[in-house]
Write a structure and sequence with these properties.
about 55 residues, alpha+beta, four-stranded antiparallel β-sheet, globular, binds zinc ion
């Protein structure tokens, strides 16, 4: 089982939630990024999709 599509650690360090600028935490199991305010972003092929959630 290879996992070369994992999110790069360095990339994760510079990522912030586009809505509130909080640091994002990577959930490996679900392959999503979340911030403290429960905004959730999907990661596709190792690239985070940082689209602000629709109101
Ligand atoms: Zn957020």
């Amino acid at each position: 089982m290879t996992s070369d599509k994992k999110l790069h650690k360095k990339l994760l360090e510079i990522l912030a939630c586009p809505v509130d600028k909080l640091p994002l935490k990577y959930n490996k199991k679900e392959n999503i990024l979340t911030c403290k305010n429960k905004h959730t972003y999907r990661v596709k092929d190792g690239i985070p999709i940082l689209l602000p959630p629709k109101e």
